[in-house]
């Protein structure tokens, strides 16, 4: 994403978000084109670019970042959002949910960091509440989401110490009403945990399933608030948008 300069910034904020151009990357071409068409109804078509890309293919991901820079001329915001829930093909779950998030983060830093031709920026990595607690019947999904948090908090410290001008934060949603929830009903996704699908559905009923719009709200909060770096935002049906509290992390001082 790229954004225009804020009109009237408020303290601790870059002002109301004014994203001017958006690139959507997804391996699902139909879903990508649909999302672009929906945005085109509201904004000029040239503001949105869809690039079909399998994030687990390093050359495709690198190529997509390059295309975005070539097309829009700059990069300000990266959201590493692609995710799958597949305990049967658990190696691919690690590839999509963790390896590609790490690769997308390094590419974002490369293009946006100060001292490398960039103007700074924001990276948001999508984890899950399953990144903060055990998730019975989804152990590998849970491991990848823990990994996203550990990686993002760590690289946020490094970015601060190295004065990249890039902020990195994580969002951990509870259950959200999106197609990924349908994976719970599929043996090809759940594998040996398939028989526990009703337990997960009971959990959904207990905790509630949110509308995706609240996740967008959380995302905008992180983009707008320049004070946020290394934070873990939790979004739940019962408590809404709030932050996970950690004790102080050692060795965080800037070396410059
Ligand atoms: N929906 C929930 O309940 C929930 C809860 C917590 C976290 N999350 C996380 O939110 C993120 C978004 O998921 P969602 O809920 O919108 O589900 P979704 O299934 O609607 O969206 C996931 C998207 O990722 C894409 N994708 C998957 N593998 C890919 C690949 N290799 N290359 C490119 N694109 C790929 C899919 O095509 C899909 O469009 C995921 O990281 C998910 O783990 C979802």
Structure in words:
With 256 residues, the protein is an alpha/beta fold. It has one domain: Rossmann fold (3-Layer(aba) Sandwich), CATH 3.40.50. 40% of the residues lie in helices and 16% in strands. It is built from 7 helices and 8 strands. It has helices at 29-42, 58-72, 90-112, 139-161, 187-190, 197-207, 212-224, and strands at 2-3, 19-26, 48-52, 77-80, 121-126, 166-173, 232-236, 240-243. The strands form 2 sheets. A 5-stranded mixed beta sheet has the order 4-5-6-7-8, sandwiched between helices. A 3-stranded mixed beta sheet has the order 1-2-3, sandwiched between helices. Strand 4, helix 3 and strand 5 form a beta-alpha-beta unit.
Looking at the chains present, what oligomeric state does this protein adopt?
Answer: single chain
If helices are DSSP runs of H or I spanning 4 or more residues, what is the number of helices? 7
The CATH superfamily is: NAD(P)-binding Rossmann-like Domain
Percentage of residues in helical conformation: 40-55%
Second-tier CATH architecture = 3-Layer(aba) Sandwich
Order of helices and strands: EEHEHEHEHEHHHEE
Briefly note the CATH topology name: Rossmann fold
Mean pLDDT rating:
92
Describe the global form.
Answer: globular
Q: How many domains?
A: 1
What distance lies between the first and last C-alpha atoms, to the nearest angstrom?
29 Å
Strand proportion, as a percent range, falls in 15-25%
- Low-confidence parts: 5-15
